Amino acid sequence: IDTPRQEPWLFGDEVERVCREAIELRYRLLPVLYTALWQAATDGTPMLRPLPLVHPTDATIRATDPPQFYLGADLLAAPVIAEGQREGEVYLPANPGGWYDLASGAHYGERQTVWIDTPLDRIPLFARAGSIVPLAPVCQHTGEPVERLALHVFPAEGAHTSELYEDAGDGHGPHVHYTLHADDDGARIVVSATEAGAGYSPVWDGWDVVVHGLAEAPSRVLVDGQEASFTFEDAVYVSVSLGQVVEVLR
């Protein structure tokens, strides 16, 4: 009341589009956000994690104090905090296997500063190599049914785990907790999940597994040991039921 109107559509088509895409990204990130909130409630690890908390001995972080922060355990956010900024430096801290640009899938090494474009319609987010990032489809509201989640796999040599938590939205009682596994031995990438919890069935009934980081199409993809159909467009795409094991053979 008695303040200027701020609806995005009052500032032209471009501002409206940028705001809409940012809101849509937030809806896609809801599985990450909810899991991070559960982790905060469970072990006290903050949802937004400053770099010194995760990398207390990193001399570059101590000397330069970069503005990045972790969103949950697996995403690194590089906020744009200067008006008119369209490019800038991002420090990517230590992580075996490096980092992946969440939007483009481009791969970067660890412990380096990179120069990236930061147009108004891009929120820079980087996924930790070895992680599995669950993303929801774009929704109009949280009550809209979600049939499938996309599990974005960012491979790194060795065995790695990520987490996915879901409940009825009340933060207690029946829930399901998945430990997501990404194992890469150089010849194949195995994606699997271990389920725990009590008395809760998620609204989604399947996963679309998206495996990034491959320079060319894999020779084969197996689901629970059986040959499976897949598509390859800069990443491997295969749809599975909950709990099925995916093997991507290089």
Structure in words:
This protein has about 250 residues and is of the alpha+beta class. Helices cover about 15% and strands about 40% of the residues. The strands form four sheets. Strands 1-2-3-8-5-6 form a six-stranded antiparallel beta sheet. The radius of gyration is 19 Å and the shape is globular.
What attributes characterize this protein structure?
single chain, 250 residues, alpha+beta, six-stranded antiparallel β-sheet, 4 helices, 19 strands, globular
Question: What layout of secondary structure does this protein have?
Answer:
Blueprint: H1 13-28, H2 30-43, E1 48-50, H3 51-54, H4 59-64, E2 69-71, E3 75-77, E4 87-92, E5 99-101, E6 107-108, E7 112-117, E8 125-128, E9 132-135, E10 148-153, E11 158-167, E12 175-184, E13 188-198, E14 206-211, E15 220-223, E16 226-227, E17 231-232, E18 236-241, E19 246-249
Parallel strand pairs: 10-14
Antiparallel strand pairs: 1-2, 2-3, 3-8, 4-7, 5-6, 5-8, 9-10, 11-12, 12-13, 13-19, 14-18, 15-16, 15-19, 17-18
Brief summary of the model shown:
This protein is of the alpha+beta class and 250 residues long. It has four helices and 19 strands.
Mean pLDDT: 93
Strand content: 35-45%
Radius of gyration: 19 Å
- Discrete helix count: 4
State the major sheet: 6 strands, antiparallel
